[in-house]
Each structure stands twice: as C-alpha cells, then as structure tokens.
Design goal:
Elements: E1 2-8, H1 16-23, E2 29-32, E3 41-45, E4 48-52, E5 65-68, E6 73-74, H2 76-88, H3 93-96, E7 97-100, E8 104-105, H4 108-116, H5 119-123, H6 130-138, H7 153-165, H8 178-186, E9 191-193, H9 195-199, E10 204-208, H10 232-239, E11 246-254, E12 257-259, H11 272-280, E13 293-295, E14 297-298, H12 299-309, E15 313-317, H13 319-322, E16 327-334, E17 339-345, H14 353-366, E18 370-374, E19 382-384
Parallel strand pairs: 1-10, 1-11, 2-5, 2-10, 5-7, 6-8, 7-9, 11-15, 14-16, 15-18
Antiparallel strand pairs: 3-4, 12-13, 16-17, 18-19
Helix pairs in contact: 2-8, 4-6
This protein binds inosinic acid.
Inosinic acid (IMP) binds near residues 126, 128, 130 and 211.
Length: about 400
C-alpha cells in the first residue's frame, strides 16, 4: 500500500480540489483525512461548477473509490444534500463513496455553539461547527458514525445537546429538526467501513488535504487556525497509516497568498491591488462567500510548510491571475512586521518566459521541484513541467 498526499501549503484555497481531480485517475482511492464541511473544493464537471464540501474531489472518476476517513468530522445534513446533488448530476456517488466508521458527527449543537459564543467571531471561522465537534471528540464525548448502530444514540445526542445548552441559559434553544434525524437515517444508505481494514484492501491511495498547513491546529498561528491536522501528520492519524507508507507529498501553492478569517498575514496587501487580486482571482470563500485577504507569496513560510510536511514536489496555481502586473513581489526574509521582499519581473501569461523564470527562481530558493502549474480554473488548465516526477497509473 502506498499513500500519496496532496496538501495546501498556505492558508487553504490553493486550488487543491482541481489538482486532486486531475491526479485521481492514477489512484484506486481518493481519501479525505481531516476537516469537514469548512472545506469548499470548486470543480467544473461537464462545464458545470460544483463545490464539494465533504465528498472527496476524486468522485467524478468512475474507476475511483472515495473514502471519508476517520480523521474527518461530517455534517450529516450537508453530506446527504451533497450526495443527492451529485446523484442528480448522474455521478455514481452511492456506489463509490465510503464512510469511515470512526468519522465523528457535527451535530446541530456544534453549529449552535459557534453562533452563541463569541469565539467563532474572534477567529472568523466558517461557522460549520468544526471546532466544537473536534472539541467534543477530544473530550471523549463525541458521537461517531458507528455509534448510530447503538440503541441509545438518540439519547446521547439529546444529552450532549442539553450539556452544552446549560452553559448558555439565555440563548435560543438548539433546533433538532426532522431533517436532521432523517439525515442520520439516510447516512445508513452510504457504505460504512473500517478505515483501517478497507484501505488495506487497496494499493494506491491519494490523500486529499483540506484547508492549508498554516491553519493546522498545532503548526499554524494558534488560535487563528482550524481544529484539525492539515499536515502530513494528519494523514497518518486520520487514515491510520504509517509514515513509511507515505509516498509523494504534493504541495499546492498559490503564486500569491490569501487568507480568510482573522490572524497574522505578514505579506498582506491593502488598497487597489488587493481589490484587483480579489476580483481577478475570484478570491471569495467557496464555503462562506467572504472576500479573502490577499498578499504576496511568503517564502520563509513556504519553506516551513515544505519542511514539516516533507513535500517532494510543488504545484503552483493561479500564476495566470498575476499576469499583466509589471512586477511581482515575493517575501524572502525580514520579520513578520517588516518583511523583506524580492521584486521579480512580471509576465503577460503563464507561457511567458518570465513566468518560467519565476518558477525556476522559486525552485532555486527552496530546493524542491515545481512539478506542475495550474493555468486557469478549468479541468484541462494545467501543465506538467517535470514529467520525470509523474506517478505511474494504476
Ligand atoms: P473553522 O475551520 O471553521 O473552525 O475556521 C477556522 C479558520 O480556518 C478560519 O480562519 C477559517 O476562515 C479558516 N478555514 C477553514 N476552512 C477553510 C478553507 O477550506 N479554506 C480557507 N480557510 C479555511
């Protein structure tokens, strides 16, 4: 068994979904290992825009099976809706999607906690109940998919809801709607598996990261982080695989940087250029619709992300968005308050020699090859630069 990995090396939104979709046909399985519906992977299927929140981005490939692995937290209502939407599009999702029995549930009370407490505002979370669901998981009172087979699962959900409600006596009560209970029933239509046993029946697995390394709960700028391990360590923990089973680690990086929500962002740009990037790059959260903060590429942070993940090859996305600027900046050092930049000549398009020069300069700075570039939003808009690094088809 070998597990290759696609990870975001910034604050998410690097364009991982499209890369996973492009690589998927080389694998038997595409597996999510962390996060939940805070993710939003935008893809184009037969020209139609699809945003996947919980279903792995390999789902559009008929020969590929998709796993939601144990490290994930799922929102049953959102998952059921997503499965129904994909089925209506003719995607054979019910035959190809597998759900780890150890996956934990995001309950209405988890979303409610983000609405009634001030903490979510401070961090600028996606308000999908991610933090509270992981908090319950780590406090050993969370509810896993496999618990839905036990006779007392309804009571446990009611008890957990009451437990949290007690802390906010004046707040409006949590609504446990019929739709929620129905969604739990509908989860039974999916194939539940033991992540450990099921993965071991397959040889070639692609682990699909969500969010980005700088949002990792341990490695990121705490507390301005998400609540899961977005790094390669999260693959081992969330899919129950050993480090030796990890093969290629593809790191996806945007040619500039964006961040949604609060927290430090040393290379952040203000003013007209930021607005230009937001518009040209469509830098609006795919889950929340919020405008993303924009900035220059930050090499010291990129080196950090490459090191802690053991990244073997890079994929650089959205160089096309910067096309037309007379020059681009990249942070090469300095402090977070006073970053030091290198200014490089701009490019007219991603086939301009100046763009190739930019890619080579990055390779020289960080010592990791740029395996491929993404040149636009559509499925076919990407190019492999280093064919020698290509994985074999299964
Ligand atoms: P949470 O994951 O909803 O708890 O949000 C915590 C932080 O992670 C916030 O700054 C969010 O904006 C950010 N975040 C969560 N998911 C994503 C994502 O998929 N892309 C970008 N930022 C994200």
């Amino acid at each position: 068994m070998r597990v290759d990995v696609v990870l975001g090396l910034q604050w998410g939104d690097e364009g991982k979904g499209k890369i996973v979709d492009a690589l998927a046909e080389r694998y038997e399985v595409v597996a999510r290992f962390q996060g939940g519906p805070n993710a939003g992977h935008t893809l184009y299927h037969h020209g139609q825009k699809v945003v996947l929140h919980q279903v792995p981005a390999g789902i559009f490939h008929e020969g590929v099976r998709c796993l939601i692995g144990d490290g994930v937290v799922i929102d049953p209502e959102i998952l059921v809706q997503e499965v129904e939407g994909l089925s209506r599009m003719g995607v054979g999702v019910e035959e190809r999607l597998y759900l780890g029995r150890g996956v934990h549930l995001i309950l209405p009370v988890h979303r409610w906690l983000e609405a009634v407490s001030q903490e979510a505002d401070k961090i600028g979370t996606t308000r999908r109940g991610i933090g509270p669901a992981y908090a319950d998981r780590y406090a050993r009172r969370g509810i896993a998919v496999a618990d839905l087979e036990k006779p007392d699962y309804r009571q446990r959900i009611l008890d957990l809801t009451a437990y949290h409600q007690k802390q906010f006596p004046g707040a409006p009560p949590v609504e446990l709607s019929d739709r929620f209970w129905e969604a739990l029933e509908n989860l039974r239509r999916l194939r539940w598996v033991s992540t450990y046993e099921w993965l071991r029946q397959h040889r070639r697995i692609l682990a699909e990261g969500s969010q980005g390394t700088l949002l990792d709960v341990f490695a990121g700028s705490y507390p301005y982080v998400t609540s899961s391990h977005t790094t390669v360590a999260g693959v081992c923990a969330g899919l129950l695989v050993a480090p030796q089973e990890i093969g290629q680690v593809w790191g996806v990086v945007k040619a500039y940087a964006t961040r949604v929500g609060a927290g430090p962002f040393p290379t952040e740009i203000a003013g007209e250029l930021a607005i230009w990037l937001q518009e040209r790059g469509n830098e609006r959260g795919s889950t929340t619709g919020r405008l993303r903060r924009c900035g220059w590429l930050d090499l010291p942070l990129l080196k950090y992300a490459i090191t802690i993940n053991g990244v073997t090859a890079l994929i650089i996305t959205k160089g096309d968005i910067l096309a037309g600027l007379p020059s681009v900046k990249v942070r090469i050092g300095g402090s977070d308050d006073a970053p030091l930049y290198e200014e490089l000549p701009g490019w007219k398009s991603t086939s301009d020699p100046n763009y190739e020069a930019f890619l080579r300069w990055i390779e020289a700075q960080i010592g990791v090859p740029v395996w491929a570039i993404s040149t636009g939003p559509h499925r076919q808009d990407w190019q492999i630069r280093r064919k020698d690094l290509l994985v074999e088809k299964t």
